[in-house]
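A further point concerns the way the authors explain their paired sequence and structure data. An entry of this sort, consisting of the sequence and the corresponding backbone structure tokens, reads as follows:
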Amino acid sequence: MNDIVPILGILVSIIIPLSVFIWLYLESKDRNRTILEISKNLEDPSKIEGMIDMLDERKKEPIDYRRTGVVTLFTGVGLFLFGVFFLGSVLKGVGALVAAIGLGQIIAGYLYPNTSEELTNAVEDFEKK
């Protein structure tokens, strides 16, 4: 009876990721089948491209490194403080590493503009010089 808890823990850690992968596969399979059925009935290729763009769920916007950097920075600070008060030097080191990664992301966000408005402003500033 004492051995059942570790076995269930191992099984749960295997079953959950497998079920998520199967679910995502089945969801994308249905989406691809829908696109195929719609494309059979359309004659204009531009309409087919429009349908594919409509069903595509990926973000069209680039990643904002400043936002993710702030989140990562404060996660690192939280881990560092958790290490200071509870778990010791190992977690302090991990927290400092995560905070440094967050700072790097924030700096990268300011060095490399990523939105179209920021790119347009950067090009206009460069052309003024």
Notes: The mean pLDDT is 80. The chain is about 85% helix and 0% strand. The chain has two domains: 4-55, 65-128. Residues 4-41 form the longest helix (38 residues).
